Prior knowledge:
By secondary structure, the protein is an alpha+beta fold. It has helices spanning about 90-100, 110-120, 145-155, 200-215, 215-230, 265-270, and strands spanning about 5-15, 15-20, 25-30, 40-45, 55-65, 75, 85, 105-110, 125-130, 130-140, 180-190, 190-200, 240-245, 255-260. Residues about 160-170 and about 275-280 have low confidence and may be disordered.
Amino acid sequence: MTWEKKRLLIWGTTYPEFSKTYFETVCTGAIDAETGKLVRIYPITLRYLEDRFKHYQWIEAEVERNSSDFRPESYRIRQDTIRILERIDTNEGWSERSRWVLRTTNVFKSLEDLRSVEEKDHTSLGLIKPVSIERVYSVKKTEEERQEWEAARASAQAQRDIFVDVEATTRDLQFVPVRYHVDFTCQSVDGPKRHKCSVLDWGTYVLHRRMIAQHGSGVGERKVIDKIKENLDLTKKDAYLFMGNSKAHCQSFSIVGFYYPPLPKQVRAQAPQTLSLPGLE
Length: 281
């Protein structure tokens, strides 16, 4: 594999994970300007970058195909080559963003279609357009999950890499005691299919921390759920779900980002009521 300079449009990041090699990294979703296809870039120690990019910001960096990952979208990045460029705004109903995000190669009619393509060529990223949102809720993590997370943190801290300056103050990454989920229906060739998927999108958990700090756990979680509901309100938004899998579980897809441009006013007025009340578990 050889390193090449690419122009990439950032669309999402997952919650940071501890790494023995890189201390703390995020898996970052982007669009390759040359092909228009979705890619994942790794490793990026985003919280420790001097200049942090935002969603829908173009960057330029040296990347190479990750030879240890059979998923075709996976690229390794030279973090010190990142150059932050212009950001695409939300003018004209997100039209410029949609020109890149909603390309036919990136969008699938259903999760079944995405899984089918994954079986053929290992495609591991794609957007799904739900026809209805059934439920948005949170589930408390187990004590075993907490212990595993704390063990991973301790191991990573003991083997900090040059990606994080040894003189820098470690920014404490907090354990999130809940995981958010969305139950949705998509339209497959065999008819409507309902799915329950966990949310890995980092922005959701940044909001969680802020809401919990301001309102406490019960009210804070409900406010996060309400925000997800608002972004996925199909009577007002042309909403899509960014779906991604893990290398170890290829057929198990999670929600790694949300895309929710506003519906045109004339369409909004005709949209059916499809969003149900949320619940907490």
